[in-house]
Design brief:
The complex is a heterodimer of chains A (126) and B (205). By secondary structure, chain A is an alpha/beta fold. Chain A contains five helices and five strands. Chain A has a five-stranded parallel β-sheet with strand order 2-1-3-4-5, with helices on both faces. In chain B, 70% of the residues lie in helices and 0% in strands. The longest helix of chain B is centred in the middle third of the chain and has 41 residues. Classes of the chains: A alpha/beta (126), B mainly alpha (205).
Chain lengths: 126, 205
């Protein structure tokens, strides 16, 4: 598993961005960029070279699910590993994310071990 | 009706119906019909009294003071918890820098403790989202109260856009699927757990 990849974390709560960034640092992922909604994330993804996206769902104007759909519809980005980390914990949310092509799904509040496990799983299969 | 309740264009339909029934029952009445008549008169008085009470509500207090005050207080809670959480995260980052000066079991214990603090600090995100849902609910209550008072008094209501509940559909629903499914945190026991999500995802493979 290559830990030198660029990781984009997307969340409208700055505190959560900081927490995830610090947890990623503990896992030796040091190349981390941030965005506060789907639109900003999509612009960064199209302009950059990322190996993993970790995104919240509930953001405005573009939600995490809508970002995921844009990523999967983009010829260059369509195979990018995409983990949803969200407080949306209804079955219909998980099903919609899976149908849109999510690589894995973490429900908030989460622990560091769950984050490590899901990252490892999606990057091994990438 | 026997009092001077303001008469609105919509508010008099029930009274008019009662009056029409009374008119149609003119003439000799049986005991049963008299009892029904008394009930209808009582109903009319109750309706008139309710209309007067609703019209007397100081909806402007709710709209101009109570709701803004409540939402301001809730916003302040989010700000304070965000500030406190960032202070805690500052301390954690300092501890992580000190960790490099330790070794062995002490370093591992410090790392474990810092990780647990990071995990616990995610409460601020969940709390903020829950408070956001409460603010939306308060605004919806404000709009509904204004509408009820305006209907009862016959006076035009304030120009307030209707506020939809989180995740609720509107008449002209142009929201994306992501927006429609954005309901925020579920109450304990209402959502699915991480292990249930893992099983659900595995069922697609």
């Amino acid at each position: 598993m290559d830990k030198n990849i660029n990781v984009l974390i997307v969340d409208d709560y700055r505190t959560m961005l900081r927490i995830i960034r610090n947890l990623l640092k503990q896992l030796d992922f040091n190349n981390v960029d941030e965005a506060v909604d789907g639109q900003e994330a999509l612009a960064k993804l199209r302009a950059g070279n990322f190996g993993l996206v970790i995104s919240d769902w509930n953001m405005a104007p573009m939600t995490g699910l809508d970002l995921l759909k844009e990523v999967r519809a983009d010829q260059r980005l369509k195979n990018l590993p995409f983990i949803m980390i969200t407080a949306e914990s209804k079955t219909e949310n998980v099903v919609a994310a899976k149908q849109a092509g999510v690589s894995n799904y973490i429900v908030k509040p989460f622990n560091a071990e769950t984050l490590r496990e899901k990252i490892e799983k999606v990057l091994v299969h990438a | 009706m026997p009092d001077g309740t303001p008469q609105g264009p919509e508010g008099d339909r029930i009274e008019a119906t009662v009056r029409a029934v009374l008119t149609s029952m003119a003439g000799d009445l049986t005991a049963k019909e008299s009892a029904l008549l008394a009930e209808l008169e009582g109903l009319g008085r109750t309706i008139a009294r309710a209309k007067a009470e609703i019209a007397a509500l100081k909806v402007e207090d709710i709209r101009d003071a109570h709701i803004p005050s409540a939402t301001d207080e809730l916003d302040a809670i989010v700000d304070h918890t965000a500030h406190a959480t960032n202070e805690i995260l500052d301390c954690c980052e300092t501890l992580e820098q000190l960790q490099s000066e330790l070794s062995g079991e002490a370093a591992d214990k410090l790392q474990g403790a810092v990780t647990r603090i990071y995990e616990a600090c995610s409460f601020q995100d969940i709390t903020g989202q829950r408070i956001g849902k409460v603010v939306t609910a308060l605004k919806a209550i404000e709009a509904r109260v204004s509408a009820v008072v305006s209907a009862a008094s016959g006076m035009p209501g304030p120009d307030a856009a209707p506020v939809a509940a989180p995740g609720a559909a509107s008449g002209d629903d142009r929201r994306t699927e992501g927006q429609k499914l954005a309901n925020g945190p579920q109450l304990p026991g209402s959502g699915v757990s991480q292990s249930e999500i893992d099983r659900l995802l595995a069922s697609f493979d």
